[in-house]
Structures are given as structure tokens and as C-alpha cells.
Model the fold of this input.
Amino acid sequence: MDVTQYFDYALMAMLLAVGVAIIRLRNLFAVVMLTGVYSLLSAAWFTSLDALDVGFTEAAVGAGISTVLLLAAMLLTSRECDKVTASRHWAALAVCVAAGAALFYALPDMAPYGAADSPANTGPGMEYMTRTAEDMKNIPNVVTAVLGSYRGFDTMGEVFVVFAAGVGVALLLGLSGRRREEDQ
Amino acid sequence: MSPHLILRVVAKLLIPLILVFGFYVHFHAKYAPGGAFQAGVILASALILYALIYGMDAARKAVPPWAARVVLALGAFIFAAVGFVSFFFGENFLDFNVLLPTDYRGQYLGILLVEIGVLMTVTAVIIAIFYAFAGRTPEITDEDW
Done:
């Protein structure tokens, strides 16, 4: 019996608790901080699932940058959010129940965790594990080789998406990075 | 800002370590999980920590907003330019083998150059977005919290 799965259950329970707390809180500062906590717990969970790259990114982007940006955005608006009317709660509950039921319906089709015959472990991904050793004898990290070289075009697209996001925000909120009053 | 003595001292110690860790994540991606995307975010977070502790004006002095915008575009340009180099040798876009034709290390060199472009763009975009948001927020006093 694998003991580490109990860590996963504990982390999932904490994620659920933080998620419920985020929904119930009206103070936006606390919500932003709990969002950071949620990201950090997710990162710990991904690490526990051996998805180090994903956990790394989640910790850096989700817990680090997103929290700061949400905080900066919150300072531009108010510190408290308005009460949501009960009718909208029911609509949200219906959507969540429907989506959750669909996920549980699809659950049996998923391969067991870590299964050797899962599509992810038998598809084209596995071929690169052996190809990388022949093509790039001095790059032991297959993830870097795949992202940097085999899928370089895809990575370039990602960079241009990030570039477009930066340019978009700069154009919307001002290129100079200064307050509007100072410009005038 | 003067009352936060502990925060200022701790930040002064942490920022160089964060920067070194960022470059470690970038250049050690050959062996370990990591890469330019994560490294760029870590490098940018060092500046954001600096801005949070020492104020926006000090941060703007350290990394001017125009520098962030130039680096933002330059990184994406470097990535595409490395890709276009292979056209001049009659190969496919982003085929790194042409960089060192007789050496299997051409792939390594190509990935290194491309990742530097990614690092520049990601770092600069995070900094630019942070400047855009934080630049519009008036400096808040401790009582406001």
C-alpha cells in the first residue's frame, strides 16, 4: 500500500476547505491571500504526484505572481465585495452540480494513477524518451528537450502569447507604468 | 516605510538569493525540472519583492519601465530570429542542428539561445504588468490596511 496517497487526500481536503472559505468570505484581501494559499497547496499536491514541473510553475506563478497582481488589482477597487443574491447562488449551484456529475460520470474511463498502459504512457510521448537520448546526447532532461527543440514552434507560440498579454496590459493600463495624474 | 526594519533587512538578504535561484532554475533546466518560464517568474518576483518593501520609485530606478518594454519585445524577437537562422541553411524553421552542423551540441546551443529569449520576455512581461497595475495604485499608508 502506497503511504503517500494519504498525503494526497490530506492536501485535497485542505484544498476543499480553502475553496469553501474563499466562497464564504466577503473581505477581498482575505480572499486574495487564501487564493495564494490555494495555489501553494496545489503546488504541494502536484509535487506529491511527481509532477515537479507543474508544481514548480504553480508555486511561482499561482502563489507568487498571481497573488501580487490580484492584490494590486484589489487596491484599485474596493476591499469588500457586495452580497450576492440567493437566486444567483442557485444558478451557480446547478452549474457546479451538473459539471461535477459529468466529471464523476467520466471518471471510470480514466486510466488508474501511474498505470503503465495508460494513453499518456503508451502514446507518442514515450517515443521521445528514447529518441532524446539518441538525438541530444547531452540533455538528460527530456522535458527541456521536448519543449525547447521537438516542440520549439509550440513554445514560440507560448512566448508570443505571453508577449501579447504583456503588450495588451501595457496598452490598456498605460505604457509608462506611472500614475495618470503624473503624466498630465 | 521606515518602520519596517525587519522586512527591509530580510528582503535585502533574500533578493540576491532569489536572483541566483532564478538563474539556477534557468541554466540547470538541462538536468532538472525548471526552465525559462519558471525562471523568468522567479527573477521578476525578486523585483516585485523589492518594490513591495522599498516602494515603486526605487523599483523604477532599478529597472526602468522602458527597459522592461524593450526586453519584452527583444526576447520574443530572439526566439523567432534563432528560428529564422535555419532558413538561411535551407532547413526547417527552428531546426537547431544547423547551428553546429558537425556537432550534436547544436541542439543544446539552439535550446540555450531560445530559452534566453523566453527568459527575457517572461521576466519583462511580469515586470511590465506589475508596473502597469502597481503604478495606478496610490501609495497606501499603514493605517489603510
Chain B has a mean pLDDT of 86. The CA atoms of residues 58 and 112 of chain B lie 32 Å apart. Residues 5-144 of chain B form one domain.
